[in-house]
Structure formats: C-alpha cells, structure tokens
Amino acid sequence: MSAVELTAAEAARCALRAGLPLEDERHAEVAATANHIHAVIGTLRDLDFGDTPPAAHVVEREVTDASL
Q1: Coil, strand or helix: which one is 15?
Q2: Tens digit of pLDDT for each residue in 20-56?
C-alpha cells in the first residue's frame, strides 16, 4: 500500500475528471476524507481473519394470512 497521500489539488483534479467539480474550499476536506478512507481500508486489508466463516444472514419475512 502506498504511503503517498492525496493532495488537495489531486482531489480536485480527480473530482473534476469524474464530473464532480468542487468548490475551492472543499479540496482539502475531500482529500483528507479520501486519505482517511484509504487508511481504514488499508487497516482492514492487513487483518488476518484466518478461518473465520462469513456471517450468516437470515431474512425473516412477515407471515401474511389473507383469511379473515
């Protein structure tokens, strides 16, 4: 993982390329947020889950009865 952080100018350029122009005062905030997200994802990638199985997801549905 790269230790280089996104600068305010790079954030503005990336946003503009994605069709999301930013106001000048937002460049630094967007760069800081992107860098934080990048750090969190990096931490998650470093975790060793070993043989941890995925969580089971159970959807409970409401029973509807059409009889009166």
Answers
A1: helix
A2: 999 999 999 999 999 999 999 999 999 888 888 878 8
